[in-house]
Amino acid sequence: MFFNLFHSKKNDFNSINLPISNFNELIGLTKNELTQKLGISYNDIHCNVWMYYLYPKRILTKKNCLYLLFKKGKVEKYYLTRFKTTKFQKHM
Fold first, then answer.
1. What is the model's pLDDT at position 18?
2. Residue 12: pLDDT band by 50, 70, 90 thresholds?
3. Which stretches within 1-92 are classed as H helix?
4. Strand order across the 49-54 sheet
5. Highest taxon of the source (predicted)?
């Protein structure tokens, strides 16, 4: 469900390049339109909640996540969250 922004390769599932400056631009997009803009990452096309990671590769201890909620096949809402990894999580 999580997705990464800031990647340079289309097939890189660890990060995604965000071609927009405002997350409000994602509201109303269909899953196909969103996939063309951001890529599918680990998201399931049949799921109503998608997630992307929003972190540069050099910052591995902080993970910013963007959650997209779909209603009737279009983005209805989005949420931003931040997670901090622990030493235990980094070694797994």
1. 58
2. very low
3. 31-38, 87-90
4. 3-5, 49-54, 62-71, 74-84
5. Bacteria
**Residues 40 and 34 sit within 8 Å (Cβ to Cβ):** no
For residue range 30-73, list pLDDT tens digits in order: 999 998 888 887 888 899 999 887 765 555 556 778 899 999 99
Residue written as token pair 């803009």: 37
* Strands, E assignment, the chain: 3-5, 49-54, 62-71, 74-84
Residues in the chain, total: 92
Q: How many domains does the chain have?
A: 1
Are the beta carbons of 78 and 29 closer than 8 angstroms? no
Quickly tell me which residue has 């399931």 as its tokens. Answer: 44
pTM (two decimals): 0.65
